[in-house]
Amino acid sequence: MELRIVHDLLDKVVLDEGRRNIGRVDGVVLELRRGAAPVVSAFEIGGRVWARRLGGRIGRWAVALGARWPALGNGVTRFAMRDVRTTGITVSVKCDGRPTPALAWENWLREHVISRIPGA
Amino acid sequence: MDAGECRVELLIGRRVADASGEVVGRLEEIVADYIDGEYVVREFHVGAYAALERLGTGMLGRGLLRLIGGDRIYTGYIVPWRHMDLSDPERPRVTVAKAELPRIGERPNDGSRPRPAPAQRSRPSATKLRTGSES
């Protein structure tokens, strides 16, 4: 089976084993090996990974903002490629996304904002 | 290729130069094969055509490009993993001359290679069925 990393993996929506949307693939890690073909070892979700892609001053500003406001620039969640079930329109993984930092921002928003709205 | 880690999202869009320093194009796509439980990189696609391919307009894009600009913009190269030097991810380099690289579309189905269809089960033949019912 063939995988086109940019077309089939990067920026795709990630669904956990409970079909919960846990974010998008912000970064892909290649493992370089001496004298052998590189291996796609993992992908990452996280504001910090995404901010690095902006580059230049905007990228540095976004990284600094994330460091100052941890809820916004939540930690980086790394999923090993062996946990990937399918790729394509969405990427499904064989893990529970709830305990990972990928949902920290959504949890914070639910706890501090949504739950205080009457009727929410 | 030296051992270590490399980030695809920072690599994509970088200008790739060949052995003599001539620009081959921008890195647009990385193709990997699933072998023994691992996604092993097979080749890197570089150039303007590879960008179209990345947007999912494989054969149609190729046809349109030929129609409007011919060979001037119809450039896309396949760089096998062994010819790509990623020791400096900010300046990826091809270890051979640009002229030695195969163009995307030179081989049939390059650039828009369909995924292999799952193997279909063959229906048992009539003779086999008959033999089965006899026994």
**Spatial strand sequence of the major β-sheet of chain B:** 2-3-4-5
State the total count of DSSP E strands of chain B: 7
User: Percent helix among the residues of chain B?
Assistant: 10-25%
Return residue spans of chain B where pLDDT drops below 50 for at least 5 consecutive residues.
none
Rg of chain A over CA atoms, rounded to whole Å, is 16 Å
Which blocks of ≥5 consecutive residues of chain A have pLDDT under 50?
none
Q: What best-fitting shape of chain A do the alpha-carbon axes yield? A: globular
Q: For the report, how would you describe the main beta sheet of chain B?
A: 4 strands, antiparallel
Residue share in β-strands of chain B:
25-35%
The helix/strand class of chain B is alpha+beta
Elements of chain B, N to C (H/E): EHEEEHHEEEH
What is the 3D form of chain B?
A: globular
Quickly count the helices of chain A. 4
Distance between the termini of chain B: 62 Å
The largest β sheet of chain A comes out as: 4 strands, mixed
The helix/strand order of chain A is EHEEEEHHEEEH
What oligomeric state do the depicted chains represent? heterodimer
Can you give a write-up of this model?
The complex is a heterodimer of chains A (120) and B (135). Chain A contains four helices and eight strands; from the N terminus they run βαββββααβββα. With 120 residues, chain A is an alpha+beta fold. A four-stranded mixed β-sheet of chain A has the order 3-2-8-7, with no helix packed on it. The radius of gyration of chain A is 16 Å and the shape is globular. Chain A starts with a strand and ends in an 8-residue tail after the last helix. The mean pLDDT of chain A is 85. In chain B, 24% of the residues lie in helices and 27% in strands. Chain B is built from four helices and seven strands, in the order E-H-E-E-E-H-H-E-E-E-H. In chain B, the strands form two sheets. In chain B, strands 2-3-4-5 form a four-stranded antiparallel β-sheet. In chain B, strands 6-7 form a two-stranded antiparallel ribbon. In chain B, strand 3 and strand 4 form a beta hairpin.
